[in-house]
Each structure stands twice: as C-alpha cells, then as structure tokens.
Amino acid sequence: MEGTVFGVWDYIIMATTMVASTAIGVYFRFSGGKQKTNEEYLLADRNMAVFPVAVSLMASFMSAITLLGVSAENYYYGMIFIIINISYGIATPICTRLYLPVFFGLQKTSTYEYLELRFGPKIRMVASLTYTLQMLLYNGIVLYAPAIVLEAVTGLDKLISILVVGLVCTFYSTLGGMKAVLFTDLLQSLLMFAAVFSVVVFSSIELGGFGQIFVKAAEGGRLNFNNFSVDPTERHTWWSLIIGGMVTYVSLYAVNHTQVQRLLTVSTLDRSQWCLWWSWPVLSILSICTCISGLAIYAVYRDCDPLSNGMITSNDQLMPYYVVDAMRQYPGLSGLFVAGIFSASLSTISSACNSLAAVTLTDYVSRWFTVRQAYIAWLTKIIACVYGLVFLGLAFLAEYLGGVLQAALTIFGAVGGPLLGVFTLGMFTTYANELAACISLISGMAVTLWVSFGGPRPPIPKLPLSTVGCGVNGTIIEPVEVDPSAYFYMYRVSYQWTGTIGFLWVMIVGTVISLAWRQQQPWEKDGRKYPDPALFTPPLARILKRKAEKEKPAVQCELLKYNGIQD
What we know:
The protein is mainly α. The protein has one domain: Up-down Bundle (Sodium/glucose cotransporter), CATH 1.20.1730. The protein is built from 20 helices and two strands. It has helices at residues 8-29, 38-43, 50-61, 64-77, 84-106, 113-118, 121-154, 158-207, 211-219, 238-253, 257-263, 269-301, 318-327, 333-368, 373-397, 404-428, 434-453, 498-516, 522-525, 538-551; strands at residues 465-466, 476-477. The protein has a two-stranded antiparallel sheet with strand order 1-2. Helix 16 packs antiparallel against helix 17 (434-453).
C-alpha cells in the first residue's frame, strides 16, 4: 500500500496516548516523595497495589513483536500455538512458591546480588553483564521492528515512529520512575487489548458472526490441535509448547530482573504472589485473543493471501495490513490500532530503562565507586535516561544489521534457559559452587546459541494458502516438502526446546563439576558450617533449618533466621 492512510482522528488518538503517558510521568515526579530516593524511584517505595503490578508483569514482555508475530503464527501455521497458555498455568505456582520467596526475603535491588551471596562475585558479574547485553539488543529491536512494519502498510514514517516512542518512554520512565512505568503499563495494556479486540470484532462482522472465524479456520486446516508427537524436531507439539513454554515462563517471571524488580514493589510476600497469580489470566487472555485474531484474519483472506499476492512482504505485516484494509473507512480506528502497537513497545522499553538503571547502579557503579547518598537518586535517573537514548541509537543502527535482527531475538530466548539453570542450581542445591556455576552458564549459553544460530536450517513449511480469489492467475499454494535428512539434526530441533536444553545443560554440567571439584562455599569463609536458609527454595530451606536446630546451639540458630519462609 502506498502513501499514508492516516487521517486527523488517527493522529489525534496516537497523540493522546503519548501525551497521557508523559503526563503520568510528570505527575509522579511531583507527587508523593517526588522520586527523591532510590527506594521510591526503583521500587515505588514497596507499597504498590496488586493489580497495576500484575498488569505490568504482562506488559513488560508482551511487546509489539509478540502481538504482530503471534497473529501471523496462527494465520500461517495454525492454532496449536495457543496450547502454550497451558504452560503458563503450570509455571505460575512454581514461580510463586519456589523462587519468589527467596528474592522477596532478601529484598535486594538487583536480582544478581543473590548470585554473589550464594556463589561469589564472579558469577554475579557474568550473569549481570549477560542480562544487560540481552536487554540492550532486544529493546533496540522492540523499538525498530514495529516501526518498519507500520511504515510498510500504513505509510507512517519509521523515523517518526522510533523518535516518538523512544523519546516519550525515555522521558516518562526517567522522570517518574517505577510508579510511572507501572501506571503507564496499565494504560498501555488497555490499548493493546483494544487493538487486538478491534481485529476480532471487525472480522466477525465481515464474516457474519464470531463462529464463522472457526468454521473457515477449520476448513483451511488451521485448527490443528492434535500433534502429540514427542519428536523434538517438530516445531510445535503439545510437549514442546507445554514444556518449552513452561521453561520460558519461569525464566522470565521467576528469575529475570525486570520482573523480579516489579514483584518487590509491593509490601508483603503474599501480595507479591498475588501479583503473579493475577498476571497469569491477564497474559493468557491477551495471548488467546491474539491467537484468535490471526485465525480471524485468515478467515477473511483465506482465498487471497496478501503475502502470496505481494500486498505485504513479511508475515509480521499481516495484522497492520488487515487493519488498514478493513478499517480505513472508520476514522480513528487505524490510529487506535497503531496506538496499541506503540503501547506494546512503550511498556517493554520503559520497563527496560528502569530495570537496567537498577542493575547498573547496584552491580557496576556502587561496586567500583563510592557515590554520595545525595547523588544516588539523580545518578539513577541519568542512567535510565542514557539507556533510553541507547535504545534509540540501536533502533536506527538495526536498519543496517540485516540478519542480526532475528539473531538478537534468538539471543533473548537462548539466554533465558541457562540463566534459569544457574539460579535453580543455587536455590535447589547446597553442593553447587561458583566455579561450576560460571563454567556451566558460559558453556550452556554457547550451546543454546549454537543450536539457535547454526545452519543451514530447513525452511518452515506454511499450511496451504490460496490466491484463487485475487484474480485470474490465482492458485492453491501447498507446503513444500523438505527432506529432513539433508540437515544436521540439532539444527532441526524446535526453537521451543532451546531454553530447556540450556536449563538442563547448566543443571547437569554444574552438578558434575561441583561434585568433581570441591570449592569453598561463601558461608564456609565466614566460619559457619551450615548455609543461610534464606538463600534456598522454601522446601530445602526448611530442611536446612531443622538440621541446624538439631545440631547447633539455639543461640547460634538466630543467625539462620530468614524472611518469607515458614515451617
């Protein structure tokens, strides 16, 4: 589509979204404690309500790439992807009961401070630097990718898109701190839902009813829920989606600093656990609706696929193309959709600015320099602002990186499994040591990145498509058969298993090295025989506490008190 399709109302709606986000940042800068302390700026004084935090947990990682990608996934490959929502339900109690009590009990600003307490300073730095690089690469793409997609189908200049989103989120997250980030996430989540709902509603009207979406999808073979294969080379099966999805969810919601920092903004462990419980249905509802929107678009274009017909050039342009094609006659609706896509980018990037500021101050600056207390709050704001500007720079550089765009997204997934493995090794075992943690993390990431990037890789066959309704030269496009034996086995393994491979690698290698090479533990350096139960998952912590109480004088047991874990 050529030229801009945006009208006055579309720009008004988009401008209103940006102004509202900015106003929230200004409000929290000049209200309450005015963000004068790091406790308020980074952790919202630990007195936030449950609902805003729950919604923010969802919005932080439900980026514009996710919204555009999941709808296209269901259009071209079928609805089996929706099964991943089952894994979220399985993973939520694992996060709330086994991991969260440890972080909440310690009350540390940076998640990676745990690794130094449990293992030592080297693994803390390795993990923290890995997280920083991961977030820098990912958020540059989060800012850039939607801009080029929207430019291609709406005519909205990508320079404007990148500058507006980048500068607005840098401004309000720098000015208003964590409170501004949480409340803008709430607003932006509403717009994300509105964008997806608008697609489902309009397609239902066009098709003659909501049920017609599934009728047409079934006719096109899109309701493909029956793949129970245990073959790891099959891209999506029940096993890969549930197990792989569960590992990904736990790596994001149990040990990722961006999410853990949000979970520490409430006053009690119980409220923090409720934040995760409420985040689950919010995430699943948006995920399911986005899946349905992909089927809805398929039902509309089942006889004239816009990608095969040359109307779009990539899968991710599918949803914006439908919005422009179907809603352009209704003033403001295209603007509402684009505001929803922009909001998905805003929520992810603002979260990253705040989280990276916390990690940088705690893990790097405070470690190597002595900063006067009066300057810490200002320094943190400057760091958050710098990261926002760095994201802007990376977004413009991304245009020249070619295939590295997909590589950056793959890094984000491949790093999560090994990092989860290191935290699990620390919380679930007493024998694991720092040498083992470092070697297993570095080697684990090397394996997952090799599996993710190695090639050549077989093409992913799409389900049948049709251009019969496009014109005289229309045809049915069947998936191309590929001989799997022509490709190396590990390059055929589904991307859904990457995180699981990294997690298991770290656990197994870390265990073997720890048992083979004994290393002094941090608590042994302090002259204590038993580790502090606060560093371990609640079931193991209770065992350690009972053992210590039996074998040590009661007065020394005072050293073993910990928060958030009860017998």
